[in-house]
Amino acid sequence: MAAARDLRAIETAGPSDAVELAKRHLVQPWPFAGSVGAEARALIGEGDGIYITDGTGKKLIDGPAGMWCVNIGHRREELARVMYDQAMALSYNTPWYTMNAPSAELAMRIAGYAPGDLSHVFFTTGGSSAVETALRFMQFYNNVRGRPEKKLILSRGGAYHGSTYLSASLNGRPRDRDWMDGADDLVVKLSSPDPFRRPRGLSISAFTDVLVDEFRDTVGRVGADRIGAFVGEPVQASGGVIVPPDGYLKRIRQICRDNDILYVSDEVVTAFGRLGHVFASGDMFGIDPDMITFAKGVTSGYFPLGGVIISERLLEQLRRSNHPDAMFGHGLTYTSHPVGCAVALKNLDILEESVLAHTREVAPYFQAQLKTLEELPLVGEVRGLGLMACVECVADRESNDPLQLDKDVGKRIDAHCHELGLLVRPLINMCVMSPPLIITREQIDDMVSILREGISRTMDDLRKEGVWQG
């Protein structure tokens, strides 16, 4: 009955009413037990270009582009019109025994950008389901080929691959798995390829050798006949925008090829323009994976869609197997959704027309301007690639320790920046920036100026509280 009363009241509801309704009825993602089901977060009312407006009417630069995804910006009428037109023509069809034209055309266009022989696409509802699909396909592939023991998955510290059971089991960020179960018997963890946290006195070249040796030794110790796949982001996004050392990914790819281990490149964040290309694996890092997962920017966040691009070689091996009746028992109600695929086609048109080139043009300026924040004593490193970057705060630069006395320093910076007109993505002691790809140089200047002031105010707060002196 209470919910019914709330439903009637919402006809005249304003921002404050939405906050109260959320506290009563909405379960937020990633909640703490102490506030689960009784929490409201910052209310966003509308968006336009690189800006969003919060529940109080304050205009903010959308620093994270939603969740790494609003690549072509908010309020693009072209996408809204395509969404409407496709829904009016065909709103849905079952993928079990029918298909639609937008999904076939989108698969063809995506395959045209993929490296190597990646030529077939399975569409999902998002990034987690894309990674889950890739892992289930690996299991199916090895079962059909008579290798039921070849199922272990290699992942790395700092990784984030999703929230479904198998994908979440790969995660290696602090706190992600503290209270959550996972398929730990299937996952083997490796070190994060984070040059900033490499052992003291070790050159980046030597650090790369250590990482490669660890990978090779792990394969030798565990057994290549038991390892089915390695899953890695070209740039570890939610782990703090970890850009791997030069040549690292190519060397790991070769070890996988030598040991018949499927290389899954998780491009849920890096694909569709974030690094200036539709896919970063080949164009930025020179690798041709066996599978690529994607989501987010494929529709610029306007519709939930993801997918896996699969090597022709893998599919051909299945077609030639002795088990032609073996079924890949995997699918989703919204696989190849016609509205999502139509939106993605138009989004790709817009990226191709100007946005990819613009991203490549402004990315060096974006990185250079953010790098100036290293002048601040609280900032240990600014790192990034394309239009994604991380500002990592440290207690002192000698040890590069994070702020042990204040693990929520990122939230403090975000709160100050919110007051000043910028939304950031706080990650413990880090602030992640990944704005819409249409951002201009002048808007980059505004963003960096606000972030500088937000960090400066946070330093003042920490000094006053006696938890940091700088």
Automatic annotation (TrEMBL):
InterPro entries linked to this entry: Aminotrans_3 (IPR005814), Aminotrans_3_PPA_site (IPR049704), PyrdxlP-dep_Trfase (IPR015424), PyrdxlP-dep_Trfase_major (IPR015421), PyrdxlP-dep_Trfase_small (IPR015422)
GO molecular function: pyridoxal phosphate binding; transaminase activity
Domain of life: Bacteria
Cofactor section: pyridoxal 5'-phosphate
Pfam families, sorted: Aminotran_3
Keywords recorded for this protein, A-Z: Aminotransferase, Pyridoxal phosphate, Transferase
Family as reported in the entry's similarity comment: Belongs to the class-III pyridoxal-phosphate-dependent aminotransferase family.
PANTHER family reported for this sequence: AMINOTRANSFERASE, AMINOTRANSFERASE CLASS-III
Name the UniProt record assigns to this protein: Aspartate aminotransferase family protein
Organism expressing this protein natively: Mesorhizobium mediterraneum
